[in-house]
Amino acid sequence: MSETTGKSSPYQTILVAGGGSWGTALASLTARAGMATTLWARNDQVVSAINGSRENSIYLPGIKLPETLGATTDLAAALENADAVIFVIPAQYARDNLAEMRRLTGGKTLPVALCCKGIERGTGALMTEVIADAWPEAIPAILSGPSFAADVARGLPTAVTLACADKSSGERWAQTIKAPHFRPYLTADMIGAELGGAVKNVLAIACGVVEGKGLGESARAALIARGFAEFQRLGVALGAEAQTMAGLSGLGDLILTCSSRQSRNMSLGYEIGEGRTAKEIIAERQTVSEGAASAGPLMKLAGAAGVDMPICAAVADLVDGRTGVDQAILGLLARPLRNEGSPAE
Ligand SMILES: NC(=O)C1=CN([C@@H]2O[C@H](COP(=O)(O)OP(=O)(O)OC[C@H]3O[C@@H](n4cnc5c(N)ncnc54)[C@H](OP(=O)(O)O)[C@@H]3O)[C@@H](O)[C@H]2O)C=CC1
Ligand SMILES: O=C(CO)COP(=O)(O)O
What we know:
With 345 residues, this protein is an alpha/beta fold. The protein has helices spanning 21-32, 44-53, 75-80, 94-105, 127-134, 149-153, 167-177, 190-212, 217-238, 242-245, 248-259, 264-273, 278-284, 290-305, 310-319, 325-333; strands at 13-17, 36-40, 70-72, 84-87, 111-114, 139-144, 158-163, 182-187. It is 51% helix and 11% strand.
């Protein structure tokens, strides 16, 4: 295990794009660490609440934000002085927002830490592919790992994966987002890091179904283990490193999200398990459940890579209304028996 140099300087003027719970928590982190931080949100109620009462009462209620954190709806102005962007807009809207940022900056080369955990509908593209198309001059990084926004904003400890193919930018990001309670681990394996966040959201829906349907803790543990096996098969096919898959952005976030109804994805699955449809639950929610939108595109990605992902496929069928809970469970349990490891000679 190697250490990062620790000599890199942090980025100083940060634009956090996205005024949901995670964008707000990350903006609070960098503002508290002393970086000039501006949060951009398209929602003027969010911006007024942050500037007025130091609280994002819509997406992160009850948590006091630092006085130094400013919020704006003016993206062009916020981009003008930014030397780095923390991008926290849900995956399905990433392409348009990144393209707009490129347009506003005139195609400037800026470091962009992608924090959304999803796969693009229609294309099956991962977020590094989306940014390569929409803002090719940007230097991307992936920030992912077990980190509920409310936990991080309250100062509870966690550790995350920070993936960046550009060594110097990765080290600067690590210095920028580190805090006494928030510990980034660096890697160059961006595919592994972004795949982990996207796949765990889909698997968390499956775990929620197991809980909501009352199938028991043993079933949930079996599902996490077999879900992780699916994730590893896809990761290997796409070139992810084993250490990343078993690390914070992979197994770490999978365990968190599959264990707690604080997760929107797990709680979505829970309500599906209780008998409601994904469509009606999502229509009632203001917050995002990335796994529901990413399950279909994940199947596209897995199909193109020739990888079998039966649990994720069952989730895609469930959220898109092609199957019911009982049928999905029976279908998974009735599959032909498989080897877990090497077969006996
Ligand atoms: N919350 C968490 O604990 C964590 C979240 N993440 C990831 O961060 C990303 C953002 O999630 P999170 O902060 O939780 O979001 P929230 O669910 O808290 O809020 C939803 C956000 O999405 C925005 N939004 C909705 N539709 C659009 C659109 N068409 N264009 C632009 N923005 C839109 C909303 O803006 P508006 O108010 O204007 O509708 C709002 O800012 C997701 O990919 C998530 O997986 C990662 C780690 C932890
Ligand atoms: O990614 C998260 C924690 O690491 C948040 O999970 P949910 O989006 O399911 O709430």
